[in-house]
Write a structure and sequence with these properties.
MqsA, binds zinc ion, Type II toxin-antitoxin system MqsA family antitoxin, DNA binding, MqsA/HigA-2, Lambda_DNA-bd_dom_sf, 5 helices
Length: 162
């Protein structure tokens, strides 16, 4: 068994060589399998180092990148479907639900950026309960505090020590 010191945790003979390994990467329920990987893995801390003289690192990273892009596009398509179902423009959606720049939603739909989790949840809730859109609009107006006025009530309190 080929072993060597771990580059990460320093464990002596911690790393063991492997080859012909298949790994399945998973992002948001989507999977990619990468076969015939070779490198070193630490038995102590789990650190993995791919063999330099193979394309293991490249194929592993590519598969991961592909998955992340595919996941963003899948969510983008979902956001677009829900927005259209609700008969909202991208601009209206941003104004109503998330705030931020008016191009933000277009970036989410194109899969360039992952929407914030809270926005994703709101969209999915409205997908499931579209009738809540009316309430959402009412609440959203109430939440606009730019015209907020406040009155300070001064109350005189007397502390009594007995
Ligand atoms: Zn280690």
């Amino acid at each position: 068994m080929k072993t060597r010191q771990c580059v990460s945790c320093g464990a002596r003979e911690g790393m063991r060589h492997f080859e012909g390994r298949g790994e399945t990467l998973s992002v948001k329920g989507m999977e990619r399998r990468v076969d015939d990987l070779s490198g070193w893995e630490c038995q102590q801390c789990g650190e993995v180092e791919w063999d330099d003289d193979t394309d293991s690192a490249e194929r592993y990273c590519d598969a991961g990148d592909e998955l992340v892009i595919a996941a963003r596009q899948m969510i983008g398509a979902e956001m677009k479907r829900i927005r259209r179902k609700l008969h909202l423009t991208q601009k209206e959606t941003v104004q109503l639900l998330s705030g931020g720049g008016h191009n933000a939603f277009s970036r989410y739909e194109r899969g360039e950026t992952l929407p914030p989790k809270s926005l994703m949840l709101l969209m999915r809730l409205l997908d499931r309960y579209p009738y809540l859109l009316t309430d959402t609009k009412t609440l959203s107006e109430g939440a606009d505090l730019r015209g907020f006025k406040h009155t300070i009530h001064k109350e005189h309190e007397t502390l009594t020590v007995s």
